[in-house]
Amino acid sequence: PPLLRKLLKFLYINKFQSEDLSGDVPYQSIKGLKELPSYTQTKKYQLILNSIDRNSKDWEKRYAMISLAVYLGLRAGDIEILEFSNIDWENNLIKRRCLKTKKEIILPLLPEVGNALLDYIKNSRRKCDLKHVFVSANGAYSKIKSSTLYYRIKYYINLSKIDIKN
């Protein structure tokens, strides 16, 4: 389609056509295959996760949230609104509507991520009836804010000294 648009634009500009039809060619979204993480990427993930101080308060929550981001590529906003109903423990899946694209996504609940979630839920999640997985550590019972998560991830990436320029 991009070449066809260029050809139609060329024909119009050079007066081979009386009408510019280049805008009538539909745009096609082509998505490449997702690559499996390389050994180097996996090593970087581990560096980020290892930078979390396991003696700190709420480390399980931080570890679980960042695991969702680095292993599954979930955005901060998607982690913020993650609910228990989105986790299919029996089939090891996370099913939800993506916040940005509004499309239904199904992700594998990798052992690293599932174990991190279980540690957080069992050991440090505040006892409350909220449907969201991640709740605030203090103050009123509420889901965690995506801005908080974003800054946490940024903090641990900086702490791990990973070069993220590219």
Describe this structure in words.
The structure is a single chain. The protein has 166 residues and is mainly alpha-helical. The chain contains six helices and three strands; from the N terminus they run ααααβββαα. A hairpin with a 4-residue loop joins strand 1 and strand 2 (93-97).
Measured between the Cα atoms of the first and last residue, the distance is 29 Å
- Which structural class do you get from the secondary structure elements? mainly alpha
Rg value:
22 Å
Query: What's the helix count?
Result: 6
Provide the succession of SSEs.
HHHHEEEHH
Question: What is the number of beta strands?
Answer: 3
Strand content: 5-15%
Biggest sheet, spatial arrangement of strands:
1-2-3
User: Share of helix among residues?
Assistant: 40-55%
Average pLDDT rating:
81
Label the overall shape: elongated
Largest sheet: 3 strands, antiparallel
Notable features of this structure?
166 residues, elongated, 43% helix, 3 strands, 3-stranded antiparallel beta sheet, mainly alpha, 7% strand
Short description:
The chain is built from 6 helices and 3 strands.
Question: What is the topology?
Answer:
Elements: H1 2-13, H2 39-50, H3 59-72, H4 76-80, E1 87-88, E2 93-97, E3 104-108, H5 111-123, H6 146-160
Antiparallel strand pairs: 1-2, 2-3
